[in-house]
Structure formats: structure tokens, C-alpha cells
Amino acid sequence: MHTLLNARQQALIPIAAFTACGAMDKLDQALNAGLDAGLTINEIKDVLVQLYAYCGFPRSLNALGCFMSVVDARKRQGKVDDEGKSATLPPEGWNSLVAGTDNQTRLVGQPVSGPLFDFAPAIDVYLKAHLFGDIFQRDVLDWPTRELATIAALAAIQGAESQLKSHYAISRHNGITVEQLRTFIAVLAEKCLPAMAENARAVLEQFLNQQEQ
């Protein structure tokens, strides 16, 4: 038993990872396990919606369709799952770009800029306004939980090591400990695929070594 992450947090990891890599058969099992572990329907929905920003609409939509089938099947079996709270509506006059820029700065710990965003400023606007504004303002999930889902998804995507390393840093800034990150990798190894865990472990060691220098 991995005690550094609770049962709900552990259950979230394979849901995000299998969504990102498109393993629908394994996702079905992970979604059932997540509900059994106490994740609410709305919490899982929010994770699957958030992940479109990291693995694309097709896999997010496929995962939501899979989850809809899981929820329907469980209802037919007489299981009663907690719907959970809905997201609070944004206040009047909400500006996604302004709010998202502030959210991104607080998540990362400093304003985010760089040559890539100068080269393609539209992606900077979309990241700030939509991902960090529209999505991260939804209070169904707290930010550490969203980051846990993000690193699980990125660990499952080949070629996303740079983004995974960046989100390790964001995770640490938002209260996820190194010990919890190691537990995250152990859960990947146990409940997902060894290759995912090895990828995540290698990137974590690179990140930690850079932090020590």
C-alpha cells in the first residue's frame, strides 16, 4: 500500500495515464476502480476534460464516452456513486486571460515567458486564457490534484519529457513532495505500465539533479 498518496489520488493516476495513451480497455477498469475508491463522478469528468489540453480532444472525448458507459453500467447494477459538487460559476466580468495569467504565475511561481511564446504568441494566449483560466479556475479539483493528473498523462505520452519535467516543478511548487512523486512513479509501475514508470523515474531524477546544482 502506498501511504504517501491516498486511495483517491492513487486511483486518479491510471485514469489519467490510460486516457492519455488511449488504452480504453484498461481505462474502463481504472474508472471503475476510481469510483470504488471514492472519486466523485464530477471529479473524474473534470480530469477527463482537463486532459484534452494535454493529449487532445480525440482521447479526451473517447475517455468521456468510456466513462459515460461505466456510469450507466454501474447504475444498472444498482451502484450509487457520488455525483460530487459542480464547478462554481465564474464571477460577473470574468476575464479568462487576466485570471489565467494570474493562475499560471501562481502555479509556476513566476511569470511565464520565453522565445517559444514570442515565436507563436497565440499559443501563449490559449494556454493562459483557456487552460490556466477557464480550466484551472474550476474548483471541482484543487491544483495539486490537477497536477497529479497532468504528470500521469505526460508520463504516458512519448516525447513529452520536457513538459513532464516542467510539471514536476509545478507540482513541487504546489505542495507535492518528492516522496509523493516517487510514490506516484510506484503507482504507475504497479497499476499502469513499467515503461511509463521508467520514463517518469528518469525524468524525475533529471529534475532533482538539476535542482541540486
UniProtKB/TrEMBL annotation:
Gene3D superfamilies: AhpD-like. InterPro entries: 4CMD/NDH-1_regulator, AhpD-like, CMD-like. It holds the Pfam family CMD. Residues 5-65, 126-205 form the Carboxymuconolactone decarboxylase-like domain. It comes from the Bacteria. GO terms for molecular function: peroxiredoxin activity. This is 4-carboxymuconolactone decarboxylase. It comes from Kluyvera genomosp. 2.
